[in-house]
Amino acid sequence: MRLVAEGVCWGVGGRRIVDRVDLTCEPGTVTGLLGPNGSGKTSLLQVLAGLRRPTQGTVRVDHDDSGAEHDLHAWRPRERARRIGVLEQHATTGLDLTVREVVELGRIPHRGPWPGQTGEGAGAIDRAMRIGRVEELADRQWQTLSGGERQRTQLARALAQEPDLLVLDEPTNHLDLGHQLDFLRTVRGLGMTTIAALHDLDLAAAYCDRLVVMAEGRVVAHGGVDEVLNAELVERVYGVVAQVDRHRDTGRLQVVWHR
Asked: What are residue 25's DSSP bridge partners?
């Protein structure tokens, strides 16, 4: 799926939180959405996922072989839920569910109105659990899972939807380094159009094809990782003096902060 946002604005109470954002996510690429707290990343992701309607501008998607673009917000909620998988920042549930039951929730948009259809999609559920590597957790209760296990379960739930686009809101924020790397490797390996809000600049450099940087609701930089990530941007956006160099072994950009 190709996603294009043009002139997107959104706000509340007279305050514009997302301000004239333009961006493009090409099919099969991972786009990192960067910026300090309060820059509008989560609000923008909610608009891109169809959870909020922009007050101005459009979000268009090209999701078939015809090349025709469609207004994402003209889709019915069920259609959006089939096409777009969303991982929220603080996904949780008070219900007493097993891991498999959580993953099965991803099939709800595909089910018909008849109770007998609830067993459909078992193959998609099994595949999603295998990709998310939560097969061995199938019978575990959600409340007993670690942070990394919960994120992998939520990824499997989103994949069970069989979406064309993944929207991830700080998916590694509460994970240790090992689980962060594991999660992003899995996402990267999907080959699915993905946009993810990330805080860690080194992880963004390692796993993203393109970066979109926000500040005060606006896009202040966008492009390939090498084009965007530099010391001047880090200081301007984050107020941190840093050095951006290539790692001598991996060749990836890395950020070393000074103050």
From this structure: 3
Among 192, 196, 189, which residue's Cα sits nearest to residue 210?
Answer: 196
Mean pLDDT of all residues in 56-76 = 85
Q: How far is CA 34 from CA 51, 84, 97, 211, in A?
A: 20, 21, 33, 7
DSSP per-residue letters across 19-45 = EEEEEEE-TT-EEEEE--TTSSHHHHH
pLDDT, tens digit, for every residue of 130-141? 999 999 999 999
CB atoms within 10 A of CB 73: 14
Picking from 139, 137, 166, 144, the residue whose alpha carbon sits closest to that of residue 93 is: 144
Backbone angles phi, psi at 62, to 5 degrees: -120, 105
Report how far apart, in Å, the C-alpha atoms of 133 and of each of 25, 112, 146, 211 are: 27, 28, 14, 28
Domains located in the chain, CATH noted: 2-93+164-228 (3.40.50.300)
77-114 pLDDT, tens digit each: 999 999 999 998 766 666 789 999 999 999 998 875 54
183 within 8 A of 171, measured Cβ to Cβ: yes
Structure tokens at 127: 């595949």
